[in-house]
């Protein structure tokens, strides 16, 4: 037991003390030790800020529920505390809550699991640390990513919260199509039976173990499992936040026993580092009282205890030493952001954590995620790494990285990660994931079969394929018959048919009125042709005697005018616009001429050209930027460059006038993110990629980050000006043909009537 009165000595405790606070901890546990130091710091900081003193009485239950009850009665009856913070387990809380409710003393429990009914039964009970029960959904997602359908759970015998934990886990596993195959209870005290219990698990078929044990018991479990060689490949160990949240407190030798485990813990924005003074004071105080320097870093439990203590003293100040219901109501109205994040009570509890993060234990340390980013990318729109050596700062930008950031936001758990710049080739980066130097690679990494030997890929997030880019040259062609090119052959035939038809109709109607239209057959035929062609340029209304022939000619002249203007415009375009064609249009020509070709430095392209396309390895020249192979193409140092489809779009957008894509698209997998084989993240990341693809996020990023290059001076490199076909004038042809037919039928009808 110790008593602390901030601002006054214990011997001189007086009415200047604005409140009396009780704390129940387990001083034998790391969590309890963090709680004690953090609550002390909170009261010290409140005194420094507000010049108000509070008496703090701390009791240790040693994790025993009966001792916790005794401590609570002493704090309430003898020390006259107005509120109690703690304990840290539900077994202790369930007994202390009864005592506090009888005396109308607010109890701010720090247990990570409290049943829903408890707050309804004990009005003065508040769950002041977020419930961890929702972490079972995150664990189910990890199991799903491994595509495993049977798991076992190991829990601590006598854990009163296990029923609710088991219910949540079973439901979460059922949702993802996985079965809870076995449930194993471990005695809370270290015993020789643990070896026999683990032996039964090893003999079974299930190789996925979810561990929900206290911190010291989990350590003992893994020490035993390591001796039994159950920590190697083939077994998956997943720990809940009860253990994972304290991994940072272990020394390297202890962590080495945990190699290969996956840990889940709730994510809270730990704001210790924004309060450097508090952080260093905690470190100094905690290390001097408890541990050596290597594991004195404060965790989330310390942050939560600091925030809860601040809530209590703030409420006491605002209620002027109010007690019972008055103090409880003020605490329930608390709403602020502390070291552990936002603190606000709803239905007597802080909402459960819904965001979780994953850690991996590798070697003699633990970490979250280190992601490699290729510095050698030729396409800065996808990956742009800028290293400022003078300030020792590296910045990361680009479509691939922004896309990964957005993808991670959609994961069902929180994932902490850091980017690391790398100058290695893409193949070497993939291998370094296999060698566990990096946990993933984010960048413009092409998905090719040879790399699957070392790692797994997400689904591609870009178009797939490899294309050939070549310079263009002026197209040479025979211009002798160019005057016929504005119209297609069918168009010319239809025009001639309409001309002859309209001429025939006019001749038939006008021949009785005009002697010039009579005579020998040859004379009449030439006259018909003359009428037809002249009508394209003149109505000759004064020489036509019948209104029917005039009607036919008016419509035809209108159509003829449109046709002639279209012909003129199309012919002018063909005469003035320069036509281009690729300098090389096939891979076979490159091989035949033994030409040198370019590709991106460090990419799979060189190997693919040699192995798949049969190019001579000596003729492959790597380039480290778009500008370098653009210059090489212009200087004819290379005949072509082979680029991935995403890169080719950027290149042709920027260098739009002198180059063109030629030949087929060779099917390659596109860009993807790289993860270790069997990574539990892969399934969730693929799902998240689908989500952001379907909701338009990828499209928005493409428009924002990849559409910046615009072609200012587009040259026509895709063939000749299109010849006009009858389809474009079909309505006009029907109009003039129909009008002439109506005039012809009307003339025939009038003649027969006479």
UniProtKB/TrEMBL annotation:
Its main location: membrane. InterPro entries: ANF_lig-bd_rcpt, GABAb_receptor_plant_PBP1, Ionotropic_Glu_rcpt, Iontro_rcpt_C, Iontropic_Glu_rcpt_pln, Peripla_BP_I. Disulfide bonds join 656-711. It is a multi-pass membrane protein. Keywords: Disulfide bond, Glycoprotein, Ion channel, Ion transport, Ligand-gated ion channel, Membrane, Receptor, Signal, Transmembrane, Transmembrane helix, Transport. SUPFAM superfamilies: Periplasmic binding protein-like I (SSF53822), Periplasmic binding protein-like II (SSF53850). SMART domains: PBPe (SM00079). The chain crosses the membrane at residues 487-509, 551-569, 727-749. It comes from the Eukaryota. Residues 368-708 form the Ionotropic glutamate receptor C-terminal domain. It holds the Pfam family ANF_receptor. Gene3D superfamilies: 1.10.287.70, 3.40.50.2300, Periplasmic binding protein-like II. One of its GO terms (cellular component) is membrane. Belongs to the glutamate-gated ion channel (TC 1.A.10.1) family. Glutamate-gated receptor that probably acts as non-selective cation channel. This is Glutamate receptor. It comes from Cajanus cajan (Pigeon pea).
